[in-house]
């Protein structure tokens, strides 16, 4: 299996606080294929970001700890790396773009320095070479007036420009895997569209595998080949983009999709304001998870079985995985 | 008693006429030079009883400034705000307070909008105390009715805000706004800090309350899909000005202003089959409101820019029935 960039098996990440165990990531397994884009959607607290941080071993310890699982990258398990070894991977072979570009850039260093830093560290380039390459990276991310921008500080740039710089830094070592954690959440829609376009364009150029995390299903749909839906620390459904759009087998995925107001929804054209389809109740707290399926208390299809045992993940269609006791009934109910 | 949106014969509930607000900023720490940031410029709109006006635009376009000026929580620099025909911009504070009962606000962040040291029952009750709106016996009943109406348990009245989730806190905020039976509520991004499943719950609550109580909303949001869902009419703002205003369906079906078109095509669609490239993708960033572009403020990013756009600002005018826009392409 050479076309897999990153293979995650049974990942468990816990946080320990006030004597409680918070199971933020609770047995997550998936593969990230080379040159593909994998999307993770879910509501806040579902474990999307913790999964991403676990892949780079960026979980602060204490309070957090990766307690179980393997992350295979180029034939090695990242979780067994020493600190020095993992440092050689971070920002080099696997790099990350964060949500808030203001806090992830160093405010007292120039843009130019911050890009060159990565190149000099990982590629051992001379100052001159690093400078040239940094400029080239900035031109890839379409920053105008590069010579001046190299000498500017993050606060002198707009949010969209800062995110472009982050992307330039992340891609400067030509990584195999790019993890983008809510890369456009802090941006306006018109800027978001520009950044998403840029990410797609650069993915082709650098043939990077991207793991895109977002709570915005619209963004995920626009960008991804494969989608994982997470709920309370577990993957509830996994499918290719078109398959998931056609048929949502897990009741959470289905109600999540239904609850989103869609632009130009035919049901909403006309004077009367239509109610949205809401999901009753709230997400369970991760230190006190219900027995059985975590979604059962909010699920309209829940049966007694759902309250007793967490459902196993089954492949209902080729490449379409679901963890639900009633998936068959739900599939039959849809046209 | 409830005047519905369809009842066009009555006077509008709220009339905003040529409202402007500028803030003074110092040019540097040691400089005595000041420059003006025009946060809102010549904003005019009406809201009828029971109607929702959506106000959309990107961050920094002045949506919130307009919302706050309408309630006179910040003083507008010029222009009039008439509530039921009374110009509230000229009222002294005592007089103003009487009219404030009629208008309430729901804030974006339900975490900072509630006093963490007050029990939530008291938070909802506070407006009633300030206006001596009910005697102590009725007050209790009223607060529990409100609690039930916004979907909270009455036994939770003695809890503190931190014991609630984001969505529940927003319900408390809505309950507080409802306590004085206002006719207008300014909703400033009320769902943007909530998860989608909770967002739907809050939007539904707002729609239901409007139907029941005939409330009018000024609904401020950057999320076009939500605005389309809840609004009867929509105003699009760019750099402190309204560039287009129309009925909800009209605006989405026949957007006129290039900025509105760009904004609509930038929204990611939830349909993989519709993956055609965005034709109206606009380049560049929002200009700084300190150095406003000459002429039409959108000309720096507009695909249809002409010489005239750089020289003279377009007039905000009617282009067809209930559809207004400010663009030279007219």
How would you sum up this structure, described in words?
The complex is a heterodimer of chains A (335) and B (330). Chain A is of the alpha/beta class. The longest helix of chain A is centred in the middle third of the chain and has 18 residues, at 189-206. The model of chain A has no long low-confidence stretch (mean pLDDT 88). In chain A, the strands form two sheets. In chain A, strands 6-7-8-3-9-10-12-11 form an eight-stranded mixed β-sheet, sandwiched between helices. A four-stranded antiparallel β-sheet of chain A has the order 2-1-4-5. Chain A has helices at 48-55, 83-89, 101-104, 111-123, 127-140, 146-150, 159-171, 189-206, 217-223, 241-246, 251-259, 304-308, 327-333; strands spanning 4-17, 20-33, 37-41, 64-73, 76-77, 94-97, 177-181, 209-213, 226-231, 234-240, 314-317, 320-322. In chain A, helix 4 crosses helix 5 (127-140) and helix 7 (159-171) packs parallel to helix 8 (189-206). Chain A is globular. Chain B has 330 residues and is α/β, with parallel strands linked by helices. Chain B has two domains: 14-102 and 182-326, Rossmann fold (3-Layer(aba) Sandwich), CATH 3.40.50; 118-181. In chain B, the strands form two sheets. In chain B, strands 6-7-8-3-9-10-12-11 form an eight-stranded mixed β-sheet, with helices on both faces. In chain B, a hairpin with a 2-residue loop joins strand 9 and strand 10 (241-247). In chain B, helix 3 runs parallel beside helix 5. The radius of gyration of chain B is 21 Å and the shape is globular. Chain B starts with 13 loop residues before the first strand and ends with a strand. Chains A and B meet through helix 8, helix 9, helix 10 and helix 11 of A and helix 6, helix 7, helix 8 and helix 9 of B.
């Amino acid at each position: 299996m050479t076309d897999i960039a990153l293979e995650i098996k049974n990942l468990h990440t816990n946080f320990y606080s006030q004597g409680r165990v918070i199971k933020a990531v609770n047995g997550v397994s998936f593969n990230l294929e080379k040159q593909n884009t994998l999307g993770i959607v879910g509501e806040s607290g579902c474990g999307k970001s913790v999964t991403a941080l676990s892949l780079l071993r960026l979980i602060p310890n204490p309070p957090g700890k990766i307690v179980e699982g393997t992350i295979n990258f180029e034939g090695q398990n990242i979780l067994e790396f020493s600190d020095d070894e993992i440092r050689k991977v971070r920002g080099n072979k696997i790099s990350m773009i964060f949500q808030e570009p203001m806090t992830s850039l160093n405010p007292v260093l120039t843009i130019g320095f911050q890009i060159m830093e990565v190149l000099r560290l990982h590629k051992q380039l001379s100052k001159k070479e690093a400078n040239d390459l940094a400029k080239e990276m900035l031109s890839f991310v379409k920053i105008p007036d590069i010579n001046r921008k190299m000498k500017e500080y993050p606060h002198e740039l707009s949010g969209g420009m800062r995110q472009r710089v982050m992307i330039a830094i992340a891609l400067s070592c030509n990584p195999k895997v790019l993890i983008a954690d809510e890369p456009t959440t802090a941006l306006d829609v018109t800027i978001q569209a520009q950044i998403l376009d840029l990410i797609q364009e650069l993915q082709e150029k650098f043939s990077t595998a991207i793991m895109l995390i977002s709570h915005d299903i619209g963004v995920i749909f626009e960008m991804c080949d494969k989608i994982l839906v997470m709920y309370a620390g577990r993957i509830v459904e996994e499918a290719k983009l078109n398959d998931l759009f056609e048929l949502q087998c897990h009741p959470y995925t289905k109600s999540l999709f239904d609850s989103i107001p869609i632009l130009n929804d035919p049901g909403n054209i006309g004077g009367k304001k239509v109610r949205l389809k809401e999901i009753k109740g709230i997400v369970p707290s991760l230190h006190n998870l219900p027995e059985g399926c975590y979604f059962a208390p909010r699920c309209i299809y829940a049966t007694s079985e759902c309250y007793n045992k967490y459902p196993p993940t089954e492949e209902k269609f080729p490449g379409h995985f679901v963890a639900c006791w009633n998936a068959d009934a739900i599939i039959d109910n849809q046209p | 008693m409830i005047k519905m949106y369809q009842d066009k014969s009555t006077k509008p509930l709220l009339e905003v006429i040529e409202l402007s607000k500028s803030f003074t900023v110092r040019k540097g720490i040691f400089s005595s030079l000041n420059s003006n940031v025009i946060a809102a410029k010549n904003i005019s709109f009406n809201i009828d009883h029971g109607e929702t006006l959506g106000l959309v635009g990107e961050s920094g376009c002045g949506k919130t400034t307009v919302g706050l000026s309408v309630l006179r929580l910040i003083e507008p620099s010029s222009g009039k705000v008439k509530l039921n025909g009374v110009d509230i911009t000229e009222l002294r504070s005592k007089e103003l307070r009487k009219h404030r009962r009629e208008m309430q606000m729901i804030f974006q962040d339900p975490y900072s909008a509630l006093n963490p040291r007050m029990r939530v029952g008291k938070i909802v009750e506070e407006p009633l105390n300030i206006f001596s709106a009910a005697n102590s016996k009725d007050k209790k009943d009223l607060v529990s009715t409100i609690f039930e109406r916004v979907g909270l348990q009455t036994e939770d009245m003695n809890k503190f805000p931190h014991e609630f989730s984001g969505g529940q806190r927003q319900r408390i905020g809505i309950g507080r706004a409802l306590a004085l039976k206002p006719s207008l509520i300014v909703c400033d991004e009320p769902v943007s800090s909530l998860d989608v499943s909770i967002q739907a719950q809050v939007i539904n609550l707002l729609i239901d309350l409007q139907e029941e109580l005939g409330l009018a909303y000024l609904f401020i949001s950057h999320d076009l899909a939500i605005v389309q869902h809840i609004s009867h009419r929509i105003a699009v703002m760019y750099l402190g000005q309204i560039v287009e205003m129309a009925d909800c369906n009209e605006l989405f079906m026949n957007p006129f202003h290039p900025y509105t078109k760009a904004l609509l095509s930038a929204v990611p669609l939830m349909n993989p089959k519709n993956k055609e490239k965005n034709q109206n993708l606009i380049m560049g960033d929002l200009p700084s409101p300190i150095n406003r572009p000459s002429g039409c403020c959108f000309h720096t990013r507009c695909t249809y820019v002409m010489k005239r756009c750089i020289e003279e600002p377009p007039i905000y005018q009617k282009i067809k029935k209930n559809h207004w826009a400010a663009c030279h392409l007219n």
